């Protein structure tokens, strides 16, 4: 079934409870609906997990977990999808977000070197006083923020629709398989009715 197929790739409840940064939400993780997997919870987890993966903020697991608790949807699937953005995939995600935002706003795209420099400046925004910001930093970040949010919405919607169709396909396939097995059991054994040579 679809449930068993998806569960194979999900983190365990113990792994999630031990994650750093989720300590203040740990007492809310006992809700059984966060661990239940059905078509509704899996579809919404796809939407919110992909959306949160594209959020241009650090510690995306915190809002993802809060959303799972608020809407009572499958937490392991949301967490798995948020892990799509990690140190290895961060630059391609940033590039695609910036590219999409610059296309929407009709502003010139930055080079890889400029994007890397912009990412470094953005990561140190909290360390520097407000008057020490380089001029135009927030203006340069606007395409990145807009593109990331829009890509998260678009890919989240595709993930939601895709999961609903995947779940339905899996259920229909399992039903046809059971039906074929039932029909095969009902048919008499052809070899026993053949006359012996």
Brief summary of the model shown:
Helix content is 64%, strand content 0%. By secondary structure, the protein is mainly α.
Structural write-up:
It is a single chain. By secondary structure, the protein is mainly α. The chain has one domain (2-187). It contains nine helices and no strands. The chain has helices spanning 2-7, 13-17, 39-53, 61-71, 75-82, 90-105, 112-123, 137-186, 190-193. Helix 3 packs antiparallel against helix 4 (61-71) and helix 3 (39-53) packs parallel to helix 5 (75-82). The protein is globular, with a radius of gyration of 24 Å. The two termini are 45 Å apart.
pLDDT < 50 stretches: none
Spatial separation of the terminal alpha carbons? 45 Å
Instruction: Please describe the biggest sheet, giving its number of strands, its sense, and whether it closes into a barrel.
Output: none
- Mean pLDDT score, rounded? 81
Total tally of structural domains: 1
Number of helix segments? Answer: 9
The percent range for strand residues is: under 5%
Q: How many runs of DSSP E, i.e. beta strands? A: 0
- Globular, elongated, flat, extended or rod-shaped: what is the shape? globular
Radius of gyration: 24 Å
Strand/helix succession: HHHHHHHHH
Helix fraction bin: 55-70%
> Structural class of the helix and strand makeup?
mainly alpha
């Amino acid at each position: 079934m679809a449930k068993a197929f998806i569960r194979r790739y999900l983190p365990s409840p113990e792994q999630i409870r031990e994650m750093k940064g989720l300590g203040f939400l740990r007492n809310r993780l006992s809700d059984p609906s966060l661990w239940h997997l059905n078509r509704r919870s899996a579809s919404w987890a796809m939407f919110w997990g992909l959306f949160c993966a594209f959020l241009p903020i650090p510690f995306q697991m915190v809002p993802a977990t809060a959303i799972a608790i608020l809407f009572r949807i499958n937490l392991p699937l949301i967490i798995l999808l948020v892990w799509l953005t990690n140190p290895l995939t961060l630059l391609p995600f940033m590039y695609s977000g910036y590219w999409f935002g610059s296309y929407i706003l009709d502003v010139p795209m930055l080079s890889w070197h400029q994007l890397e420099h912009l990412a470094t400046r953005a990561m140190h925004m909290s360390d520097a006083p407000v008057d020490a910001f380089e001029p135009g930093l927030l203006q340069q970040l606007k395409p990145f923020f807009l593109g990331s949010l829009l890509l998260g919405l678009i890919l989240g919607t595709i993930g939601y629709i895709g999961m609903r169709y995947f779940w339905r396909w899996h259920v229909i396939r399992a039903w046809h398989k059971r039906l074929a097995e039932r029909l095969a059991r009902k048919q008499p054994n052809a070899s026993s009715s053949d006359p012996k040579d």
